[in-house]
Amino acid sequence: MNNTTAQTQLTITYIFIAFLFSVAIRMIWFYQFSGYDQFYFNGQFMINTNDGYAWAEGARDILSGVSQPNDLSKIQSSTAQLTAIFAKILPFSFESIILFMPVFLSSLIVIPLVLIGRSFNNLEMGFIAALLASITWSYYNRTMIGYYDTDMLNIVLPTFLLWSIIWAMRTREDKYLLITALEILFYRWWYPESYALEFSFFALILLYTLVFERKNLYNYKLMTLMLLAMPMLDELIRLVMVVGVFFAFKQEKMQKYIYYVFAVAVLIFLATGGINPIWGKLKSYVFKSSVSAAKDGLNLHFFNVMQTVREAGHIPFETFANRISGSIATFVLSIIGFIYLAYRHKVMLFALPMIGLGFLASVGGLRFTVYAVPVLALGIAFLIVEIANKMPDKKFRYLSMILLSAAVLYPNIMHVVSYKVPTVFMKDEVKVLDKLKHIADREDYVVAWWDYGYPIRYYADVKTLTDGAKHYGSVNFPVSFILTHPQEEAAKMARFDVEYTEKNFKEKRPFRNIELMTVDAGFDDTNDFLLSLQTDDVKLPKKTRDIYLYLPFKMLNIYPTVSAFSNIDLMNGNKTKAPFFYMSRSFKDTGETIKLGRGISIDKKTQTVQIGQNKVPMRRFVRTYYDKNMKLRKDEQMLDFSSPISVIYMSNYGTFLVLDEEAYNSLYIQLFVLENYNKNLFDKVIMTPKAKVYKLKI
């Protein structure tokens, strides 16, 4: 057996072991919760990411061949299409496929890492990097079992792209020209937002060529095919261009025209949008503000959703380092190792775009850290191998390699063990939606906060106003208004928003519902329109479908965030006074007082609430509880009408609410917490402690 064959066998062995390791670690969550009934529905574990239900809905509709107009089902998405293919050819249930897809697809990252190690004749480096990268904090968090999302290939594909670029630049073999371009095509099909990273790879190769290898025709061939794979054109057109030019390049007579072909590729790239998508992403994640304004019409101002998305917020350095490498020490050593690796093999500088995007997390939020994981895993792995190579004999070499590898793997494995995330919905919540599916029509709308949009559409098969993709400020304002304002205003806004949403679909116009409502009602000031909802003068649009309200208990956790989207003067962007709302589940009864935390306590003797340095009398105290028939009951004491602060004790939930009149009278509090609903406006549909559904009557 020659050396090449032996190396190939060892490469395959390392890939196989690393793949099994990655899969096994991801199964820890499965065994931790295998007996927890609330995570199961219809005998199968549910997924644990909200966005996953978007792709699941799309795949479901592809398989059924049924998708009603304007339902926003992602039947055109690559994730849904690939899932549908798997569901057709694999002998497993649909629920099992979406649960386990992240496990197996994300574990493919070990392949390019081991192959990168092989390109430097350092398989041990690739193997150690594969073990580490496959389970590092941020990568595991976004690819664990049940995290059914595009992330299951979002790092695998650029790592493959890095591998092919490295091999292309090192071997100058024609096949890597085509492989690199095809990887870009597949990466873009899978994840359209890959544009910025693809361009970064291209820009670095261009810079390298201009500085070091200006006359190297191979580099221009590579860049040409990359550019032809990148334009904002149909996939088939790009594929034809890539394959056609690749075979043209293989003709000897074409060599003198390479610069011209490259120039044409540049023009095509610029003519189809160029760097516009990149700039758009930078503005969205880096140069973000709390308020965004429409550019025409009434020039309304809305609360920017990016200010409330945790993954797009600033993160502390320790979290940043842990997510990329598992610990600060490993992170620092990984950087040192990468610098040393790049010094020894300058082709590794082509990995800088992934590191740069990962480091963008320092300003753009934790979602980006995952991009730096595989590259810095190579850095620490190279350092480990270099240290091991200094050992006096083979025995100590392998022992040191094993111990050092275990040291960097350990904190990441411990993170996996402790990272016990729940499923998106509990079984009892899904039961509500499953029941609603048999009550509501597919053309009906369910009003709920955007966090619940995708799961609602998947389980109840209805339409929603907002979801994980459609949740910009102008869309969130009316939904926030509905959930956090009094019932009459909320009911009218619900009818307005649904009917205008459908009208926008039919007339193919932007979703500027509030502005259109204002203008159509004869106002030039949105504040006047909103005030008109309190009167009987406003004319509602014609009813075309039923509207349901989905009110889950878990929304209590985000009530202040929900209210923030409508606590704004749309005409000038000034934030209005937020309602006072405080929730406590960690309280202590000392006998005379109930300490709720954060400087808030209840004096039972004087019936007052201590809020910081201020002592405020209670307007009312309400205790809610469920009787043996699971009917909500209330004990209400009216205490001091001059006070704005009320206290609600939800005894079955072990939850105290301290809130002012604005929050107390909001639709969500009245309908979910107290079940005080206006019978002229709403009908009860489904009442459970976990979630409640009402039907709009107007």
Provide a short characterization of the protein structure:
With 698 residues, this protein is an alpha+beta fold. The chain contains 30 helices and 19 strands.
Termini separation: 80 Å
Q: Strands across the major sheet, in which order?
A: 6-5-7-19-18
Average pLDDT reading: 93
Q: Count the beta strands.
A: 19
- Proportion of residues in extended strands: 5-15%
Q: Ranges with pLDDT <50 over ≥5 residues?
A: none
Based on secondary structure, the structural category is alpha+beta
Helix content: 40-55%
Determine Rg (CA atoms, Å). Answer: 29 Å
Shape: globular
Our count of domains comes out at: 3
How many DSSP H or I helices? 30
The biggest sheet amounts to:
5 strands, mixed
Write the layout of secondary structure elements.
Elements: H1 3-32, E1 40-41, E2 44-45, H2 52-64, H3 78-89, H4 94-106, H5 110-119, H6 123-135, H7 137-141, H8 151-154, H9 156-171, H10 175-190, H11 195-212, H12 217-229, H13 235-249, H14 258-271, H15 276-285, E3 291-293, E4 301-303, H16 317-325, H17 328-344, H18 352-359, H19 361-364, H20 373-388, H21 394-418, H22 427-437, E5 445-447, H23 453-460, E6 463-464, H24 473-484, H25 487-507, H26 513-520, H27 526-532, E7 547-552, H28 559-564, E8 581-584, E9 588-589, E10 593-597, E11 600-603, E12 608-611, E13 614-617, E14 620-626, E15 632-638, E16 645-650, E17 655-660, H29 661-664, H30 667-673, E18 682-687, E19 691-696
Helix pairs in contact: 1-5, 1-6, 2-3, 2-23, 5-6, 5-9, 6-20, 6-21, 9-10, 10-12, 10-13, 11-12, 11-18, 12-13, 12-14, 16-17, 17-20, 20-21, 24-25, 25-26, 26-27
